[in-house]
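F.,

This is the one I mentioned.
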């Protein structure tokens, strides 16, 4: 039997369920609702024990205060109003709805026909109405006490110039990790285990970027195929952590993980999905926003409000042009940055967030709100600069304060090492920080987030082991995922015992990794690439919450331990030599002692000519970086020590004689890295000496000086 609870008027702010030490204030925005009921449930979330109508409606916010409610209480909403899809309204009080501001969720969605506001299966959802209750199979919102003692926690405050990002999946990273106890695998508590944090720290990266951790839904069509929304790109709550990622069920577990990462000097960046929700298109379920105020939360087709504008490929688009929806997104970001202490955000399909009535606008309300916010203007902001909408590809157009995923870097570097011709001019631009894309409005090279692999696509091991994708396990007849992989199997598709092929694959991996970590810009590594993690050729493992998608720690054999050491060495050199992460774009316009800040060297030891740049058969190039050029610079207030480095990339199938350039200072060149050998000797060479550069290799050289010897 449902009883009534004491309710007072309360306040219309803040939105959500707020415990003040004496009771709980509930506030829900809905501009078009006629009545809002708050439903309270027993501790298991199975039985509705009380239902009260929120008594007040102020500035389009329904609100009420329950003096007897306490943290831990489970609740949901029923919202009354017109069911008229043709006018944009899809209210249905028979559906229990998730509070958009819920800080925690209890339980998981169990799919049933009752989750739809219309009779599921009807050809016209606007002409039917479902009166069945869905509460038993819905997750419940939980009232939380957000107060927490952070102790001495301080964000590492890493500068962009020293940042090396490590992209991973919170669940997949520890699901098979041998040092994580069974009860903690796949959770924030598992990521907090000493062995996990020590491994990441020892690798040398400075920031961990997690795939979405907001509460999400596995689409019904996936569950029917016994798959799941592994990546988590279908959010249903922008404040609540995904319940399955919490071993304790308590949000302080996530806070503890963040604090432990900070203690290790590691920043935490979250991949966030504010462009769409899990409710899908006009035939999707009614789980939250659709039933609270469909016409406000979503962008609808102006000529027929029954349908949704779909610029995300998911069925709907969140309406950030509405001030209350924009407020929700900003409140969510402030919550994660302020209450949960995260250090930055990577915005999925960020072009959608900047699109207004006249298309994409770098001065959109959302971007302007971020830039002026006193808290969010100080955290790291990374854009995925594309979506499926008109003019959706916006690489380089997000403006000051933004870093952006640079897929042109990925494709160019892969093509070069694949042996494609005519790539050198494009490669040079990418190695130098993509100034052609980002050098305006005072932006810096760090704005280019360089990557050769990411969660979306092949792993590094698969880039060198497969000619084509193998996504059959996704149940879509291998139609999903890109066909444009710029990959090679080196003679055998997939696993092999052939020592020659294995050696070629390892060198290819070393070339890609060395190129990435020796380029100007912000490098991003995909977790597991440092030890040969494979997805068996699946380049779209979004639904593989299993051994395909999880990191395979058993893959670390003696050969892979060498590769881990190689990656550590590269990151160490990047940190040791500031000229590899220079704080400004290099254009060859400044010089010191006759050497430009950047010089492109041909194999004959001279500067590249116009004819050489346009030689489609050319596969070898040198890049000389002079840290003395361009006057005094500093990073974080510390003067940069000048230095001179030479990077040689030979993408040709044969050995090439390369004359090491003459410079005024030093007594020759010292080799620090050579990808043709797992452990290259510290070879010293004279100026102008023509040395053999191995086929398909990268080498890094510094001036042979006593000071350099001490540094190394």
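My design for it:
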């Amino acid at each position: 039997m449902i009883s009534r609870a004491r309710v007072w008027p309360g306040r219309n702010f803040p939105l959500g369920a707020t415990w003040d030490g004496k009771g709980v204030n509930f506030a829900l925005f809905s501009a078009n609702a006629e009545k809002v009921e708050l439903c309270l449930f027993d501790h298991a979330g199975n039985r509705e024990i009380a239902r009260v109508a929120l008594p007040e409606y102020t500035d389009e916010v329904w609100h009420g205060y329950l003096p007897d409610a306490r943290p831990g209480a489970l609740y949901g909403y029923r919202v009354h109003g017109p069911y008229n899809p043709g006018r944009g309204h899809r209210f249905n009080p028979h559906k229990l709805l998730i509070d958009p501001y819920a800080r925690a969720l209890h339980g998981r969605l169990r799919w049933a026909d009752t989750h739809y506001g219309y009779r599921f299966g009807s050809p016209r959802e606007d002409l039917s109405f479902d009166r069945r209750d869905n509460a038993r199979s819905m997750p419940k919102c939980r009232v939380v006490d957000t107060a927490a003692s952070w102790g001495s926690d301080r964000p590492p405050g890493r500068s962009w110039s020293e940042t090396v990002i490590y992209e991973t999946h919170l669940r997949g990273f520890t699901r098979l990790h041998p040092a994580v106890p069974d009860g903690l695998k796949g959770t924030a508590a598992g990521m907090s285990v000493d062995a996990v944090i020590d491994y990441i720290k020892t690798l040398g990266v400075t920031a961990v970027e997690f795939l979405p951790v907001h509460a999400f839904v596995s689409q019904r069509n996936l569950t029917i195929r016994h798959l799941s929304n592994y990546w988590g790109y279908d959010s249903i709550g922008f404040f609540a952590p995904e319940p399955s990622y919490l071993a304790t069920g308590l949000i302080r577990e996530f806070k503890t993980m963040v604090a432990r990462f900070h203690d290790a000097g590691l920043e935490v960046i979250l991949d966030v999905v504010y462009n769409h929700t899990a409710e899908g298109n006009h035939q999707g379920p009614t789980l939250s926003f659709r039933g609270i105020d469909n016409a406000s939360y979503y962008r609808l087709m102006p000529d027929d409000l029954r349908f949704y504008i779909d610029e995300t490929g998911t069925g709907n688009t969140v309406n950030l042009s509405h001030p209350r929806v924009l407020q929700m997104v900003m409140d969510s970001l402030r919550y994660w940055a302020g209450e949960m202490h995260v250090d930055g955000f990577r915005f999925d399909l960020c072009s959608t967030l900047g699109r207004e009535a006249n298309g994409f606008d770098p001065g959109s309300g959302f971007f302007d709100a971020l830039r002026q916010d006193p808290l969010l203007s100080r955290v790291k902001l990374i854009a995925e600069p594309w979506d499926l909408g008109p003019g959706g590809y916006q690489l380089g157009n997000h403006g000051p304060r933004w870093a952006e995923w640079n897929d042109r870097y990925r494709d160019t570097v892969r093509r070069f090492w694949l042996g494609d011709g005519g790539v050198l001019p494009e490669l040079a631009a990418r190695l130098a920080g993509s100034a052609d894309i980002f050098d305006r409005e005072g932006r810096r090279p760090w704005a280019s987030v360089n990557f050769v692999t990411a969660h979306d696509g092949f792993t590094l091991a698969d880039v060198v082991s497969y000619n084509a994708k193998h996504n059959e396990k996704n149940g879509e007849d291998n139609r999903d995922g890109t066909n444009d992989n710029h990959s090679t199997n080196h003679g055998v598709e997939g696993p092999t015992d052939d020592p020659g092929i294995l050696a070629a694959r390892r060198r290819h991996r070393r070339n890609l990794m060395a190129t990435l970590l020796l380029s100007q810009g912000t490098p991003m590594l995909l977790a597991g690439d440092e030890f040969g993690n494979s997805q068996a050729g699946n380049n779209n493992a979004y639904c593989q919450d299993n051994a395909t998608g999880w990191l395979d720690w058993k893959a670390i054999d003696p050969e892979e331990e060498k590769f881990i050491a190689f990656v550590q060495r590269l990151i160490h050199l990047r940190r040791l030599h500031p000229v590899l992460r220079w704080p400004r774009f290099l254009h060859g316009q400044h010089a010191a002692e006759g050497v430009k800040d950047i010089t492109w060297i041909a194999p004959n030891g001279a500067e590249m000519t116009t004819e050489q740049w346009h030689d489609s058969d050319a596969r070898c190039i040198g890049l000389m970086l002079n840290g003395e050029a361009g006057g005094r610079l500093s990073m974080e207030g510390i003067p940069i020590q000048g230095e001179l480095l030479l990077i040689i990339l030979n993408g040709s199938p044969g050995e090439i004689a390369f004359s090491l350039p003459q410079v005024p200072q030093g007594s020759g060149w010292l080799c620090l890295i050579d990808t043709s050998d797992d452990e290259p000797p510290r070879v010293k060479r004279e100026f102008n000496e023509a040395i053999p550069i191995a086929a398909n290799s990268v080498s890094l050289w510094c001036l042979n000086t006593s000071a350099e010897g001490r540094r190394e």
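The two ends are 75 Å apart (CA to CA).

Talk soon.
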